[in-house]
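Technical note accompanying the year-one report. For the benefit of new consortium partners, we illustrate the data format agreed upon in the data management plan: each record pairs a sequence with a C-alpha cell string. No post-processing was applied to the example shown here.
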Amino acid sequence: MIREIILLFVVSGGGVVRRKVRMTAMMGRPMHSLFSSGSTVAPAPSRHGRPVLWIALAILACGIAVAGWLTGKREQPLRIEAPLEQSVRKAEKSEVMMATLRIDADAPGARIVVDGRAVGVVPRTIDGVMPGRHRVRVDAVDRIPWEREVNLISGETQRIHARLAATPPRLRVESDVPGAMVFLDRRYLGKTPLTAREITRGSHRLDVSVEGHEVHSETVDLDAGERTVMVRFRQMLLNERLAVVHRHGIGSCEGELIATLQGLRYESSNREHSFSATLDAIERFEVDYLKKNLHVRLRGGRKFNFTIRNESADPLLVFHREVERARSFLARKYTSE
C-alpha cells in the first residue's frame, strides 16, 4: 500500500511540475516563479542554483526507490512448514533410503542376531534396515554359528541362506571320586573331570577306573553336541530286566529276571520255579557265552539255568556284569563298615 501511494505521488507530482514549467514558458515567466506563492515576481536565481535542484531531485528519487524496495521486501509472505509436514517429509526420505534383509538357514528355528541385537528366528524378513555394513550372526543348538558382514544397498532386498555345520561330538566325564582315569576305546584320555573333543560320531566304549573301586564300563553313543557321563563309585544303581527262558530238567518256562540292590528274582507264570533272593544269598553266578547260558545257584542248593531267544548272548553278558558290579560294591561297603 505504501509503495502504491508513493508511486502515485511521484507520477502526479511530476506531471504538475512539468505542466507548470510549460505554462510558465509560454507566458514568458521565469522558472523560479513556479515556486512563488504570491504575485510579486522574485528575482531570477543565479545560474549556480540549478545543479543543486537536480541533485536534490536525484536524492529524492533514490530515497523513493529504496523505500519501495524495503516495503516490497517486508510484504513478501513467510513460508512456514509445520513440524508434522517436516516429519512426514523426513519419513518419506528415510523410507526410500531403507533396505530389506531376508534371512533363512538350514537349521529351523535358528536365532538371528544383527549388530549384536537379537531380532528373531529364521525364516525372517527384516524391513527398514539402514543401508551400509551390518554384522549378521545365525546360531542354533549343536551347530557351529554362522557369521558374516553384509553390505545393504538402499532400496534393495538382500537374501541370506546360512548353512550351519553340526558341532563335533564332545564327551564330558565326571566322577564322585576325583581323579578317576578315563579310557575311550581303550585309549587313555586323562583324569576326571575332563572333556574330550576330538571324537568321532558313533558308539564308543568308555571305561573309568579309580583305585579301591570297581571299573565302570559302558557304551556311549555320541552325536553332535556334548554328552555328560557321571560315574558314581560311591553310589551303586542297579535296575536290570531281562526276558529269559528257564531250562528245567524236563521242559522249560519263560519269565523275566529282575535285578535291583534289594536282590535278584525270577518272575514266571510257573510259580513253582519263581524265586526271590538277596544278592548276598547268591553263591554262584556265572555266564557261559558260547552256550548262551546263565547259571545261578542260591544259598540252600537251588540251581537255575537261563537262556535267551536272541541270537547273541550279549544281553546275558551285560546282565551278569551289572549284577556282579553291584555285588562287589555291596561287599566292599559291608567290609568297610
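Partners are asked to follow this layout when depositing records. The first helix runs from residue 2 to 27.
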